[in-house]
Structures are given as structure tokens and as C-alpha cells.
């Protein structure tokens, strides 16, 4: 991914929480600096007590 000239980038985040309910999870992460990033998603179902954690990394380069 590359930062635009205005140094603004919005990274879309999508997760499919299949073991929990099959529900999609979406969000967006505003990024203003280049570098390596790690995103961690934590899900919890209070009905069943199921929990799940997953993470991914990505690199933002200068534009």
C-alpha cells in the first residue's frame, strides 16, 4: 500500500467470524505514516463464551 501525496490512507479491514456466527466484521484504519502495521481482531460471543483472536500485518510505503 502507498500513502497518497496528502499522507492519508484508509485501510479497509474485513473479517469473517465463522465459528462465532458467520457474521462479517468490518472497519477502517486511518494511516498517516509509512511503516509496518499489525492489526489484531478479537471476537467474543457472550452466549456461547467462544472467543477468537487473529492478526495480520501490512506495510505502508511512501508515495
Structure in words:
By secondary structure, the chain is an all-beta fold. It contains no helices and four strands. It has strands at residues 9-17, 23-31, 35-44, 51-60. The chain has a two-stranded antiparallel sheet with strand order 1-2. It has a two-stranded antiparallel sheet with strand order 3-4. Strand 1 and strand 2 form a beta hairpin. The chain is elongated, with a radius of gyration of 15 Å. The protein starts with 8 loop residues before the first strand and ends with a strand. The model has no long low-confidence stretch (mean pLDDT 84).
What labels would you give this structure?
single chain, mainly beta, two-stranded antiparallel sheet, 4 strands, elongated
Main beta sheet strand tally, sense and closure: 2 strands, antiparallel
Secondary-structure class: mainly beta
* Percentage of residues in strands: over 45%
Helix content: under 10%
Number of strands: 4
Q: Could you give the order of strands across the largest sheet?
A: 1-2
Distance separating the two termini:
9 Å
Order of helices and strands: EEEE
Mean pLDDT: 84
- Sequence stretches where pLDDT stays below 50 over 5 or more residues: none
Discrete helix count: 0
Return Rg in Å.
Answer: 15 Å
Tell me the number of structural domains: 1
The rough form would be described as elongated
Amino acid at each position: 500500500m502507498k500513502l497518497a501525496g496528502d499522507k492519508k490512507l484508509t485501510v479497509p479491514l474485513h473479517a469473517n467470524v465463522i465459528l462465532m456466527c458467520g457474521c462479517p466484521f468490518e472497519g477502517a484504519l486511518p494511516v498517516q505514516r509509512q511503516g509496518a502495521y499489525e492489526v489484531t481482531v478479537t471476537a467474543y460471543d457472550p452466549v456461547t463464551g467462544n472467543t477468537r483472536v487473529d492478526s495480520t500485518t501490512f506495510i505502508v510505503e511512501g508515495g
